[in-house]
Every structure is written in structure tokens, then in C-alpha cells.
Design goal:
Strand content: 35-45%
Number of strands: 35
Mean pLDDT: 92
Number of helices: 2
Largest sheet: 8 strands, antiparallel
Distance between the termini: 72 Å
Helix content: under 10%
Shape: flat
Length: 533
């Protein structure tokens, strides 16, 4: 049974309350309107960043207060409208049930055991939060708050003008981007200068200064363009990487940026090298035939099927002939080809398994780069079902909000994250290289869009995806997906799913035709190519 006991309730409030009322120390006082609301001012908040106050204090005569935002004004008295208020919230008290351990032997007046008590958690009561991405600009803000209580059906309330003071400081830059990074300064050309830099998401009211190389370079304080110093005399080809000072004109705070631009000084124009970065190129190193994951990936099995490998180390010779791609890092000496089999002997049972690559923050390459993810895979040993369809395929998905956990259950219900299948937008090239009769990679055939239909492309085509006259049976395929700028996020995830499209069991014979085959995957990576537009 539940019973409310005032002493227990007060003890709990004292333990969890973030709005400590001095009246708690002496018990309930005469009930009155709330008095003496106090918030600690915040003077170091930043534009667009999350803001959270500490818990306020207020005298209420021992009653639990409720807080309500009445208005927010600027220093000049202008009231903020809903476009600002939508980001603001005030924490509330929450009823909770506290379980009592039966072994403590607590009983009520009738001798019955007390198993729980009702209380109120006031830990966040009155705390003001302003969500990240808000549109409060630099300046002072004053919050008017109404505090109310209730006792015996009567409300007691007080409105406190300017109860909380907030000062928003300018958002300082976290990144400085010159695009391209390598830029040519030509001696003798009075118009030779770099591009203007980008300051993503920062307050633009800044001045640019050079920290070093001022004997050879100059910078436009308003635009950030770099040119040769007026008194510079050319002697030889020179490469400089100046440190840039970005000074806030509002707060005079200074942010230093190193290695953001390389200026190459010549006496005649030259074409500059374009930077290519592989920010994530895991080895996929793992062990065994049924791993839970490996370097750069995890494995989720929804329907195991009867294959002898699920995203495990390759053990079939068809997958071992891939020659190392030229972009593979020299350090990837343990680069692993992963293998998933969907059949054993003459039988194929339904299967569904995921290879989930490690989530990546791509925002560093949001400006000045063209982003893609890339991989190599081989569909092998697929034989079509009686109606001409493939029994299985390798599906590719992306998500910008996945934070972990199983993606799907055995019934195909989505469990975590929002996922988009992107097979139709992936650029592909079929391997034309052969080693020992097996597909080996380069040279690569013409590019086409959309991952290929597994198998030899013969027979009926109910899915409308076959390409007669060619085959992808046992052929490596080089794949690349261009990540749209609007999808670049701090939480980007790519996942591969070996999926089956039949029920029951396939026997790969005239009675029950079809074989699910195997899939090999290697050299998954992200690539950032410096934009030249």
C-alpha cells in the first residue's frame, strides 16, 4: 500500500531539491506570497550555445513553488517575441514514488508494511534552460518570472521583474577555412591574393591579423585575404603557412588558427595541388567467422540463417584476390576482407545481418570539401529463384541520428535511428582485372549509378534491374556515395545489410531453385576532396 508521510516527504525534498527554501529548515511557516526570488546571473554565455542556470532560491513558507516565464526584455526595454521564447523552458517538479525495502520493516499505524511513499522531485524546479541554436544576439537580457504556490485550494503568487540577468557574448570561431588550402601568390601581380576565409557559425564582427611571416605577407583586416607584403622582394620559390589571429571587435577576444592555409610564392602563376583526406579508413580487422565487430565496425544479426560466416574473416578464395587499392593507407597492413555467407551446402535459409560502421563527425569537412564514403564489395555464387529474382542483396543505409543499439528486429521493425537506403544513388564500377581466374580489382570498367543486381543477369527480370550481356557473378565492384551537404552531420553512420527476399528454404535445384550466395566487403572509407569550385 502507499501512504503519504509528511516527515519523509520533507526529508526527500531536502535531499533532491534544487530550489532550496530556507523555510524548510524550521518547518512550515505562515503561508504567504513567494518572496526573495534569486537567480545567479550568467555573464559568460555564447551566441547559439546551450545555456542553463543554477537552481534559484525563493521563500514560499515551506510550499513547493511553480515557476512561469512571463517575459524577457532587452536592455532597451524591447520584449522578445515567440521566435526567441520558443527556445526557453523552465524546469518543473515531478511526482515520484520512492520504494521502501521490505527488509527495513517500515509499517503504518495499522501495522501494515510500507512498500512505497509518494514524494516530489524538485531537482530541476525553476532551472531556466535555453536550447542550443537559439537566436539571442550579443547583449543583456532580463527575465520576469512568476512564482506561485497552492494550499487548501488557494493560490499564492508573486511576479518578480528582472529576476534573472543574462549577458550573451559573441560566439568565437571554432574553425577558419581557406578554400583551397594551397593558394598561389604571384610576385609582381598587384591583384594576386588569397580567397576570403570562412568562419562557420561564428559572429562575423571580427578583425584578421597575422601572427607571423609579416615580413613577407600582409592580410586584409576586414576580409582576411592574404597578399604579399608591400615591401617584399622575391628571391626564390617559397612556401609559408601563416598563423592567423581572429580578433572579436565586440569582446576583443583573440582566437589563433594554425595550418589553415599554405601560401606558395612564385614569380609566375602555378597550378596548386588539391588536398585529399581520408578521415576514416579502418582496417576492418576482426577474427573468426561470427564476430561481434572489429576495427571500425560492429555486427548485428537479426536472422542468422544457415551460412557459415556472418561478417567474419574471409575464408573463401573468391574474396582473396582483391589487389590493394592505391588509396589504401600504408599503415593498413591488416586490412581485412569481410565475408557473409547466406547458404550452406545446397540450402539457403532467410537471413538478415548488419555491418554497422563507426559513427563519424563529418562537420570538420562541411566547408571547402566534397565528401564521400567508399567501399569495395563482391557478390558471389548467387543463383536466381524460380521467378528470376535474386534471393539476397547487399543493402546500404545511412543515418544522421543513430546513437547505438539494434537497428532492426527480426520482423524488420526499425528500433534505433532514422535510416535511408541509398543503393540507387551509389556510383559503381565493375572490376575488369583478373588474377588466377578470379576478380582482382583494377582496371575498372565504366561508371554506372546504382549498385548492381547480384548474379549473372540472365533470365526473367521481375525487379527490372538486370543488365543482360554482362555479369556481376563473382566480380568486385568499386562503389562511392557522394554525401549531400545537407546530410553532413556530427553523427553520420553507414550500415550494410545482407538481406533476403524469400520465405521458407531454397535448395538450388529444379524443385526449389535459388542460392543466396556470399558477399565480400573491403576497404570502407570516407574521403574528403578539397573543392575547386
Amino acid at each position: 500500500m502507499k501512504i503519504k508521510k509528511l516527515p519523509l516527504l520533507l526529508l526527500y525534498l531536502l535531499a533532491v531539491s534544487a530550489c532550496e527554501d530556507a523555510s524548510f529548515k524550521s518547518g512550515l511557516e505562515d503561508i504567504r506570497d513567494p518572496e526573495d526570488l534569486n537567480y545567479v546571473s550568467i555573464t559568460d554565455a555564447r551566441e547559439s550555445q546551450n545555456i542553463t542556470t543554477t537552481a534559484p532560491t525563493v521563500h514560499t513558507g515551506g510550499l513547493i513553488p511553480r515557476f512561469e516565464l512571463v517575459s524577457i526584455r532587452k536592455e532597451d526595454g524591447t520584449l522578445l517575441d515567440e521566435s526567441h521564447l520558443q527556445y526557453v523552458s523552465i524546469g518543473e517538479s515531478v511526482p515520484v514514488e520512492i520504494e521502501i525495502d521490505p527488509e527495513e520493516g517500515k509499517v503504518d499505524g495499522n501495522g501494515d508494511p510500507i512498500l512505497s511513499v509518494d514524494a516530489v522531485n524538485t531537482a530541476v524546479n525553476g532551472i531556466i534552460s535555453i536550447a542550443g541554436g537559439h537566436n539571442f544576439t550579443v547583449g543583456d537580457y532580463y527575465f520576469t518570472i512568476k512564482v506561485s504556490t497552492e494550499s487548501d485550494g488557494m493560490e499564492y503568487a508573486t511576479t518578480f521583474e528582472d529576476a534573472f540577468h543574462l549577458y550573451i557574448s559573441p560566439l568565437l570561431p571554432s574553425n577558419l577555412i581557406y578554400s583551397p588550402k594551397n593558394q598561389n601568390l604571384v610576385y609582381g601581380d598587384p591583384d594576386s591574393k588569397t580567397s576570403e576565409p570562412l568562419l562557420p557559425n561564428a559572429n562575423p564582427d571580427v578583425t584578421f591579423e597575422l601572427e607571423n611571416h609579416t615580413d613577407k605577407l600582409s592580410i586584409n583586416g576586414e576580409t582576411g585575404e592574404i597578399a604579399l607584403a608591400p615591401d617584399y622582394m622575391y628571391s626564390t620559390y617559397d612556401t609559408l603557412s601563416p598563423t592567423i589571429r581572429v580578433v572579436s571587435n565586440i569582446s576583443e577576444e583573440v582566437t589563433l588558427f594554425e595550418n589553415k592555409i599554405i601560401t606558395i610564392i612564385t614569380d609566375t602563376p602555378e597550378e596548386m595541388p588539391v588536398e585529399t583526406i581520408y578521415p576514416f579508413y579502418p582496417t576492418l580487422n576482426t577474427s573468426g567467422s561470427f564476430p561481434t565487430g572489429g576495427d571500425g565496425f560492429s555486427v548485428q544479426v537479426d536472422i542468422p540463417g544457415n551460412g557459415e560466416d556472418i561478417w567474419g574473416v574471409v575464408d573463401n578464395s573468391a574474396g582473396r584476390f582483391l589487389e590493394a587499392p592505391e588509396e589504401r593507407p600504408a599503415g593498413n597492413t591488416s586490412q581485412t576482407v569481410l565475408e557473409t555467407q547466406t547458404h550452406s551446402g545446397g540450402s539457403t535459409q532467410p537471413t538478415a545481418s548488419w555491418m554497422v560502421t563507426s559513427t563519424q563527425d563529418l562537420t570538420l569537412f562541411q566547408y571547402g570539401y566534397d565528401l564521400s564514403f567508399n567501399y569495395y564489395y563482391q557478390p558471389a555464387y548467387q543463383n536466381y529463384m524460380e521467378d528470376g529474382r535474386t534471393p539476397t542483396d547487399l543493402e546500404v543505409y545511412i543515418s544522421t541520428d543513430y546513437t547505438g543499439g539494434d537497428i532492426q528486429d527480426a520482423e524488420g521493425n526499425w528500433l534505433n535511428g532514422t535510416w535511408t537506403k541509398v543503393n540507387e544513388g551509389i556510383r559503381c564500377r565493375r572490376s575488369e582485372g583478373v588474377n588466377g581466374g578470379r576478380s582482382s580489382g583494377a582496371p575498372w570498367g565504366p561508371e554506372f549509378v546504382g549498385t548492381p543486381y547480384p548474379g549473372n543477369q540472365e533470365g526473367p527480370d521481375p525487379d527490372g534491374r538486370k543488365v543482360p550481356g554482362t555479369t556481376f557473378y563473382g566480380k568486385w565492384v568499386k562503389c562511392s556515395y557522394d554525401i549531400p551537404p545537407e546530410l553532413i552531420s556530427p553523427n553520420f553512420t553507414v550500415a550494410f545489410k545482407v538481406a533476403s527476399y524469400f520465405e521458407g528454404e531454397l535448395l538450388n535445384n529444379s524443385t526449389v531453385p535459388g542460392r543466396g550466395g556470399a558477399y565480400f566487403l573491403s576497404d570502407f572509407n570516407y574521403r574528403a576532396d578539397e573543392s575547386t569550385d
